[in-house]
Amino acid sequence: MEPLIEIKDLYKSFGENRVLNGFKLGLYEGENLVIVGKSGSGKSVLLKCIVRLLEADSGTLKVLGQPIPGLDQYTLDQIRTEVGFLFQGSALYDSMTVRENLEFPLRRHPEKINSQGVETMVLNTLRSVGLAHTIDLMPEELSGGMQRRIALARTLILQPRIILYDEPTSGLDPITSKEIIELMLKVQKEYQASALIITHDMDCARVISNRMIILFDGQNHAEGTYSELSRSSDPVVQAFFK
Amino acid sequence: MPGAPFPGNQLKEYFRQTGEVWLFTVRFFREAIRRPFEWRELLHQCYTIGNKSLFLVGMTGFIMGLVLTLQTRPTMEEFGAVAYMPSMVGISIIREIGPVITALICAGKIGSSIGAELGSMKVTEQIAAMEVSGTNPFKFLVVTRILAATLMVPLLVIMSDTISLFGSFLVEHFKGEVSFRLFFNQIFRNLTFGDLIPATVKTFFFGFAIGLVGCFKGYYSREGTAGVGRAANSAVVIASMLLFVIDFIAVLVADIFYDL
Ligand SMILES: Nc1ncnc2c1ncn2[C@@H]1O[C@H](COP(=O)(O)OP(=O)(O)O)[C@@H](O)[C@H]1O
Ligand SMILES: [Mg+2]
């Protein structure tokens, strides 16, 4: 089976700072792949390279079979609609209401509007994150956890095949984190999307992952399921499970 | 550049920025003519810009007219030239003082708010979020704001000029018992197209410069909240300087065309 995302020998530095140093991964249909790494280890940089918010220095980087570096803007934008991105800080458009936040990508990709129409699509997506009643509120009126849910709804509305989560539980209290994780599991199933999840929250990793990669020194340090890795004797791997 | 220690580096940085501004401008024109247009956001920005500056611009315009007339009147009286007051004040407001003062106020008000708004959108990754949803943030945020500033600053100048002339009229009326009709007749009799056209044309450039600098500084602001403050601040400083350069060029060009 062809992977949805295929990365080989990925290198990325900022000046002298080598962040990714020959990283590789393959994300397959229906899978929840978790990447864990210390803060500052280049997790966000990796995600940003995948959607070309940052240009990788070298390596193979294919999304849905298309090589991302050197892709023309139009095709890149088409691919980006198939890849949802949940930002670390939610990144809701703070001058727009919840409704307008969800309508924003949809109105600019009319081919994604189905027969139900924009209004119903917005409402249905909000329902699936359990926040239909917030439709006319501004982002600043919502709690951090609610903002994260709306941000998830905004990526879901284009019905992506892949969702990239950048630390979905960061900055949230344990109970809200748990709710977000459950919501992620629910929408993954509902929307049949595959997910690449970046985190240093091991509870999150345990619940959601089918497979994990430990990112260390810009490389794949270890790979396996949660229970395999938790039994590892490698001190770097062990440090995450303490 | 964080702490460029050598003058050579500063020079390099200066040229780098100039190059970037140039590319930004080219990109603006390329994206501005490409469909689909963001009409709603353009209207919304026009409204916001006008609404935000209306009171301030009107207020300063009014005071400008009052002060200018009050201060010149005694001198003109001394020379027995009080009858020329309306046309003199009218020409100086319409040709120079109105556009420049209004544009400076707009640079402070509009330039800084565009810089801060786009800067904070950049820092909180809202611009990146637009990009990864396959939409074009440059078109939605930058093109609309630059166009709105280009369209609204001239309107604000016209409004400010009008209020300013009215302020001037009040002084003339109470000090020199000049009637409304006489005052404005005098002004318009002495106004030529040579006064009006260059004065109006340059206000479009003023608006363009204010929008461009605000957007550029905000769109490329650095990480962190300090970056947002710097973006807003340097947007005002650079736009204000640019206004005088444009004004100077406008006067030179008008001089050639109308042989004043
Ligand atoms: N745009 C950038 N310019 C320069 N350095 C960057 C940039 N983005 C990230 N970095 C650096 O890359 C490294 C990894 O950052 P990041 O991927 O954000 O870490 P994390 O794993 O916590 O998400 C850090 O050292 C950071 O300073
Ligand atoms: Mg990060």
Describe this structure in words.
The complex is a heterodimer of chains A (242) and B (260). Chain A has helices spanning 43-50, 73-82, 98-107, 118-128, 144-156, 174-191, 202-208, 226-230, 235-241; strands at residues 5-14, 17-27, 32-36, 58-63, 66-67, 83-86, 162-166, 194-199, 211-216, 219-224. Chain A is an alpha/beta fold and 242 residues long. In chain A, the strands form two sheets. Chain A has a six-stranded mixed beta sheet with strand order 6-7-8-3-9-10, sandwiched between helices. Chain B has one domain. The longest helix of chain B has 40 residues, at 39-78. The interface between A and B is medium-sized, with 26 and 14 residues. The structure holds adenosine-5'-diphosphate and magnesium ion. Magnesium ion binds next to helix 1 of chain A.
The molecules bound to the chains, other than polymers, are: adenosine-5'-diphosphate, magnesium ion
Query: What level of helicity do the residues of chain B show?
Result: over 70%
Tell me the number of helical segments of chain B per DSSP (H or I, 4 or more residues long): 8
| Secondary structure tally: strands of chain A | 10
Instruction: Estimate the global geometry of chain B from the Cα principal axes.
Output: elongated
Number of strands of chain B: 0
Tally of alpha and pi helices of chain A: 9
**SSE pattern of chain A, N- to C-terminal:** EEEHEEHEHHHEHEHEEHH
Gyration radius of chain B (Cα, Å) is 21 Å
Portion of residues in helices of chain A?
25-40%
SS class of chain B: mainly alpha
Q: What is the terminal separation of chain B in angstroms?
A: 45 Å
Low-confidence stretches of chain B: none
Q: How much of the sequence of chain B is in beta strands?
A: under 5%
Tell me the overall shape of chain A: globular
Radius of gyration of chain A: 18 Å
Largest sheet of chain B: none
What structural category do the secondary elements of chain A indicate?
alpha/beta
In percent terms, what proportion of residues of chain A is strand?
25-35%
Give the oligomer, counting copies of the same chain as homo and different chains as hetero. Answer: heterodimer
